[in-house]
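dumping the sequnces here before i forget
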Amino acid sequence: KQEVTQIPAALSVPEGENLVLNCSFTDSAIYNLQWFRQDPGKGLTSLLLIQSSQREQTSGRLNASLDKSSGRSTLYIAASQPGDSATYLCVSMTTDSWGKLQFGAGTQVVVTP
Amino acid sequence: ETGVTQSPTHLIKTRGQQVTLRCSSQSGHNTVSWYQQALGQGPQFIFQYYREEENGRGNFPPRFSGLQFPNYSSELNVNALELDDSALYLCASSQNGDPGELFFGEGSRLTVL
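..and the predicted 3d for all of it:
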């Protein structure tokens, strides 16, 4: 059974600093890995999707890497802004569970002005 | 806005009661999945429906049941409510379970007293 762990559970940084969010997973037979953002009381918004054959994806200030051999993914957010304050969830889909996502517990980020 | 709508947004029930939560999928999506998110945790997969048939289930008891209708809207029913059922229930729709086309609703917040 896939276990997804996110460290740290919470993070507070001043505006302008770079953010590094870590995710580890136990089953390397993943189909893909995604990073989602969740604002308080809201649903989830997909930020980046990395297919199993890829090593990273980038979108604007966001970059996510994937290392299946070590069971790790990292989300980098450059030059953080107060609007980046949210909970970030790491999510995997293993090859034997199409459509079923396994979520980490999330990293709660606060960016102070 | 994702086009996935859930109702009701908030509701309060007492132990032993039954609840029905509803989800309207993104237009053109034939797959819907439901997740339970307890406070401070990542979402947990409940089940998935594809073209009106359940095609995947997480570790939830039978009192959690669902339906998908010909227009691909969906219901989640929970019988004999327990205090631990208090959570945010999220619905996500996609085309054929494709994670690259997965959109979440904003959820239904259930409180069981």
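The longest strand of chain B covers residues 87-94.
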